[in-house]
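The material for today's practical consists of a large collection of protein records. Backbone structure tokens are a discrete shorthand for how the chain folds in space. An example says more than a description, so a record of this kind follows:
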Amino acid sequence: MDLIDIGANLTHESFRHDFDAVLARARQAGVARMIVTGASREGSEQALALARAHPRVLHATAGVHPHHAVDYDAGTEARLRALLRDPLVRAVGETGLDYHRNYSPREAQRAAFESQLAIAADLGMPLFLHQRDAHADFLALLKTARDRVPAAVVHCFTDRREALFDYLDLDCHIGITGWICDERRGTHLRELVREIPAQRLLLETDAPYLLPRTVRPPPAHRRNEPMYLAHIVAAVARDRGEAVEVTAARSSANARTVFGLDPLPVSAT
């Protein structure tokens, strides 16, 4: 398989001691490429540094997660715009709204999100989006920019049917994680994933978070990593009634389209 993990937090400190081994295990599991998520000013810089160190295997996003919105200022915006001009940075984000934890005030979250929507529109770049317990405000703001950006990825979708169709109506792509492998919290996704058009489906681990509960035995450290994308594609294929190879090929083709990735030569896969 030629899988693409469209959301991996590989700048996380838990990967520092065995990063090269993580990439090797991903390749062995069929994960040819990974998009490293930038979720803060510093994290976005680190994501680009990793992509530069591993060209054609890693690309990056640059953005400020709503948890860090309180730190968003003019200097942050200027730095994001500079990072986003690097060809290895393929999307604006992770950006959006999170009213579940409210680590940043909601007003600050909305202001940072609006600013990053404007950056994506100015630069003509895709959006890599986060939303939790903020659907109405998130949707209203996204609508103001959706027709001015080439693509929008609703990352780590775990919401309900109404939200899914709101996003599909805006021609968004939907990122599915190991949440679908969770028999406690993800059972509703087993039905909803059938409703996602083939050309809108993307797969991601959100590593090191959301270790699929189908990994047996689970690793003692409980860290998720890109090699476990194979468990996610298997679950999605099962619930869509497709062959794993079909789901893998379609999701990877979608990722190449959304993030503007050239096909890898055979020798690199």
Summary: The chain has a mean pLDDT of 96. The beta strands are 3-8, 31-36, 58-62, 89-98, 127-132, 152-154, 173-176, 201-203. The first helix runs from residue 19 to 28. Residues 3-264 form a domain with the TIM Barrel fold (CATH 3.20.20.140).
